[in-house]
Design a protein that fits this description.
The chain is of the alpha/beta class. It is built from seven helices and twelve strands. The structure holds NADP nicotinamide-adenine-dinucleotide phosphate.
Length: 251
């Protein structure tokens, strides 16, 4: 499923709501021809409004070849804060190919004074922290990395993700397939219906999934928050307007 431009264009690495919003803005900017790239993880992705391609590039080498073959003039890495490998590929390939790179990354969430948040480095750290904090766990870290929780038999899990997760999963769990955005009333209802006493989340940031944090606050639930991984040093903007301004300058 690949549509390509033969003329020089911007490559937008997507998979986030910010990338989708930027693609919508670029659809109205014929002076900035662009193509969006999706990893292909979501079974039914929303079709982008600009040219697009789906699937990995084949590592740094494949991405370098793509940049060259498709005359890419600039790359915007708008992938998820936890998508580490593609960002590393983008930084290395852009540096090797001399293609300007911009990182579009939304800010993380901010802990409030009365929040009972427990910061950990990764899913293994989150799994290790669960037993001391709760027994009915709202697990919202996505369908990847769930194996880290598979050995936990003392707790019950409500696992929410967009597409069905692959085993292994924790022995006592229910999977809730949902795409969001989520609102406070819905998140409170889930907590109450399932008698959830602990939330586990990545520090994904953004508004679309922030209601769960407010719901946890209102119900005095502890929250295990997985820190963002380290990323390559690169020019970064926090919002779509910043990315569009950078692209307009580069065009
Ligand atoms: P990852 O670990 O950084 O990437 C794994 C591999 O998937 C990459 O090496 C690359 O394959 C391919 N890939 C990733 N993003 C791509 C893109 N936009 N276009 C083409 N190929 C891409 O990424 P991930 O954590 O699996 O996430 C995959 C996608 O889901 C990303 O686009 C990300 O924005 C989105 N997403 C991730 C999370 C999360 O929590 N990780 C959450 C929401 C959305 P090659 O090496 O073959 O090029």
């Amino acid at each position: 499923m690949t549509r390509t431009n033969s003329r020089p264009h911007v490559l937008l690495l997507g998979g986030t709501s910010e990338a989708s919003a930027l693609a919508r803005l670029l659809a109205a900017r014929p002076d900035i021809p662009a193509m969006v790239s999706l990893a292909g993880r979501t079974i039914n992705p929303i079709e982008p409004p600009i040219a697009y391609r789906i699937g990995g590039f084949g590592g740094v080498e494949g991405l370098c070849a793509f940049l060259d073959e498709h005359a890419v003039t600039a790359l915007v890495d708008a992938t998820h804060p936890f998508a580490q490998r593609i960002s590393e590929s983008a930084a290395t390939a852009c540096s090797a190919s001399g293609v300007p790179l911009l990182r579009l990354e939304r800010p993380g969430w901010t802990q409030r004074a009365d929040d009972d948040w427990h910061w950990v480095d990764d899913t293994a750290g989150a799994a290790a922290a669960i037993s001391g904090l709760g027994r009915r766990v709202f697990l919202t870290t996505g369908r990847q990395g769930l194996a880290a929780f598979a050995g936990l038999s003392e707790a019950w899990f409500l696992i929410r993700c967009i597409d069905p997760p692959e085993p292994p999963l924790p022995p006592a769990c229910e999977v809730l397939l949902d795409r969001g955005p989520y609102d406070l009333a819905g998140e409170l209802a889930l907590i109450d219906r399932h008698r959830l006493d602990l939330l586990v989340t990545k520090d994904s940031g953004g508004e679309l999934t922030a209601a769960k944090l407010e719901a946890a606050r209102l119900r005095s639930l502890p929250v295990i928050v997985i820190r963002r991984p380290r990323r390559p040093e690169t020019a970064t903007v926090r919002d779509v307007a910043g990315a569009l301004a950078w692209l307009a300058g580069a065009a």
